[in-house]
């Protein structure tokens, strides 16, 4: 646990600033990559959720994306029209409609993620293997702590 005086320090200020800046650069690069695909950044995020967690309802997807239900419905409508996802009634409860990722949507996600990883690989070429592993270890620890809510 950090010493209370460290929390107010220039180090914390710089860490927050660096994380924000890195996040912004990665997002910008991702948006540039997406310009070569027939999807918008919010559609990309939705497809990623579906790839990671599997089929879900519009309500579940709305919550994950912090979007209004109506906004998510419009998003899914456009993705369905472009054959990226399909709606399918739940076999146990026909009132429930699940959104399923289609192969075209999965392929786009895989290609875009691969290009984002190529970008990061290029950036990390100036780092040693040990430095790269250290970055990965520290970021993983930071993510775990943030997920715990500390």
Description:
- The chain has 150 residues and is mainly alpha-helical.
- Helix content is 70%, strand content 7%.
- The chain contains 7 helices and 2 strands; from the N terminus they run H-H-H-H-H-E-E-H-H.
- It has a two-stranded antiparallel sheet with strand order 1-2.
- A hairpin with a 7-residue loop joins strand 1 (85-89) and strand 2.
- Helix 4 packs across helix 5.
- The radius of gyration is 19 Å and the shape is globular.
- The model has no long low-confidence stretch (mean pLDDT 92).
- Detail the poorly predicted runs: none
The arrangement of helices and strands along the chain is: HHHHHEEHH
Number of helices: 7
Number of DSSP E strands: 2
Describe the global form: globular
The class by helix and strand makeup works out as mainly alpha
> How much helix is in the residues?
over 70%
Chain-averaged pLDDT: 92
* Content of β-strand: 5-15%
Gap between N and C termini: 10 Å
Strand order of the largest sheet: 1-2
* Main sheet makeup: 2 strands, antiparallel
Radius of gyration: 19 Å
């Amino acid at each position: 646990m950090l010493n209370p005086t460290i929390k107010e320090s220039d180090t914390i200020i710089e860490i927050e600033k660096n994380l924000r800046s890195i996040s912004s650069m990665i997002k910008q690069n991702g948006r540039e990559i997406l310009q070569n695909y027939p999807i918008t950044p919010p559609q990309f995020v939705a497809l990623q959720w579906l790839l990671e967690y599997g089929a879900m309802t519009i309500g579940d997807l709305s919550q994950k994306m912090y979007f209004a239900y109506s906004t998510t419905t419009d998003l899914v409508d456009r993705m369905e029209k472009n054959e990226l996802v399909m709606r399918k009634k739940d076999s146990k409860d026909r009132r429930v409609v699940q959104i399923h990722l289609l192969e075209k949507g999965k392929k786009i996600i895989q290609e875009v993620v691969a290009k984002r990883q190529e970008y990061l690989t290029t950036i990390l070429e100036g780092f040693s293997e040990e430095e790269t592993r250290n970055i990965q270890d520290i970021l993983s620890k930071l993510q775990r702590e943030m997920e715990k809510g500390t």
